[in-house]
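Hi, here's the filled form for the chain we discussed.

Project: internal
Contact: R.S.
Residues: 173
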Amino acid sequence: MIHHVNNEFGSVCLTVEYDKKSQWVFYQWKGFIRMQDIKTGYNKIIEQVAENNAIAVLADHSQIVGPWNEANEWLTKDWTPRAIEAGMFYWAINTGNDLFSNISLEMFLSKNSEGRYKVQVFEQLADASKWLSNRVMLDPTPKKAAQLPNSSQKELPNSSSKIVEKKTIGKRL
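And the returned structure, exactly as it came back:
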């Protein structure tokens, strides 16, 4: 089932759905997103992760316009722990060309990549999907965050993606 989150003007700013075949939650942001949209939308994502026992999330940020870094503290301190508790372990993010959105993502990830889940940033949705498919297929029951060592979880880079470590994401801004 596809879920939509509308902004204050009634336009769809987020689409969320569980992909049963791939066994992940897919979401796609569109346009300029405000703090309330972000809270409503990311709470819907957690709901879908928990409801479907999903360990993986595929994100499409390619259509975001403008910054959203005002939500970074809430995402880091509130949303991420709840998403992990709900079962999220793998997160693939497809970025777009919007400089301000990419800076917001970089700021979020720089404060939020402490090994409690594996995240990878891509420039193409197909590459993000492929990486996530491999993770789900190879490790369908990953260890929960409490069982992980305190070190950061890292993936080997390939030609289409980069490792997310403390202060870097896929493409340098």
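Let me know if anything looks off before we file it.
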